[in-house]
Specification:
binds D-glutamic acid; globular; about 210 residues; about 40% helix; alpha/beta
Length: about 210
C-alpha cells in the first residue's frame, strides 16, 4: 500500500474536471493538484514553451513526493506524447482513455475534436483515432477562446457570450455528419451543458477530464 498522494496538473482549473472524477472513483486517495493559473493558457504557445512549463509542473509535483502524475491537460499530453514516460515517477495523460471512449461511442465512425490550437496542430488525437479505428473520419477544430472564457467564469449553459463563440466554432462541423465530439481540452467539460445545448443534444460528447481519471 503506497500512501503517497497522486499528483495532477493542468495549465489552470480545467484539470479539476479530472480531479472531480478521481475523487469520485478513488475517495481514499490524497491528491495534490497544481493549476498553473499564472501562465494559462498553454494552448496558444509553442511546443517548446509548453514542454518547458510542463517540465516545471512535473518537477514541482515530484518534489511533493507524489507516487504518480496525471497530466490533466490535453495540450501537454499532446505535445509531450511518449516523452512523459521518461520521468522517474509514472506519468499518464488524457489522450488514450479519451480516444478509446470516442471510438467505442461512435456508430458512424465520424468523430470531431474541439481542443486548443496546440493540440489540434499536434495531430495527436487524430493519429491515435486512426490507429484505433483506421476507417474513422476525423475533423478537428481549435477553439482558443474557450480556455480564457472558462478561466473567467463564463461557463454557465445560458451564458450568451460563450454561446455565441461556441456556435461560431461548432459551425465547423456543419455537413460533416459527426456523431461523436471529443472535448479534447480538460477545460471544455465545464462547457458540457452549453455545448450539448448548442449541438441540440445530438452528439456523444466525450469528456477528456473524466476519461483521464478512469
Ligand atoms: N486544460 C488544458 C487542455 O486540456 C488547457 C490548455 C490551455 O491552457 O490552453 O488543453
Amino acid at each position: 500500500m503506497d500512501n503517497r498522494p497522486i499528483g495532477v496538473f493542468d495549465s489552470g482549473l480545467g484539470g479539476l474536471t479530472a480531479v472531480r472524477e478521481l475523487r469520485r472513483i478513488l475517495p481514499g486517495e490524497d491528491i495534490v493538484f497544481f493549476g498553473d493559473t499564472g501562465r494559462v493558457p498553454y494552448g496558444s504557445r509553442s511546443p517548446h514553451i509548453i514542454k518547458e512549463y510542463a517540465t516545471q509542473c512535473m518537477d514541482f509535483l515530484e518534489k511533493q513526493d507524489v507516487k504518480m502524475i496525471l497530466v490533466a491537460c490535453g495540450t501537454v499530453s499532446s505535445v509531450l506524447g511518449e516523452e512523459m514516460k521518461k520521468r522517474t515517477v509514472p506519468c499518464m495523460g488524457v489522450l488514450e482513455s479519451t480516444v478509446k471512449a470516442a471510438v467505442s461511442a461512435t456508430k458512424n465512425k465520424n468523430i470531431g475534436l474541439i481542443a486548443t490550437a496546440a493540440t489540434v496542430a499536434s495531430g495527436s488525437y487524430e493519429k491515435l483515432t486512426a490507429k484505433l479505428l483506421p476507417e474513422a473520419k476525423f475533423t478537428g477544430k481549435a477553439c482558443p477562446l474557450f480556455v480564457p472564457l472558462v478561466e473567467n467564469g463564463y461557463f454557465a449553459a445560458n451564458c450568451e457570450v460563450t454561446r455565441l463563440v461556441a456556435k461560431d466554432y461548432l459551425s465547423a462541423f456543419e455537413g460533416k455528419d459527426i456523431d461523436t465530439l471529443i472535448l479534447g481540452c480538460t477545460h471544455y467539460p465545464l462547457l458540457y451543458n452549453l455545448i450539448d445545448s448548442v449541438t441540440e443534444h445530438k452528439l456523444n460528447l466525450i469528456d477528456s477530464g473524466k476519461e483521464a481519471a478512469l
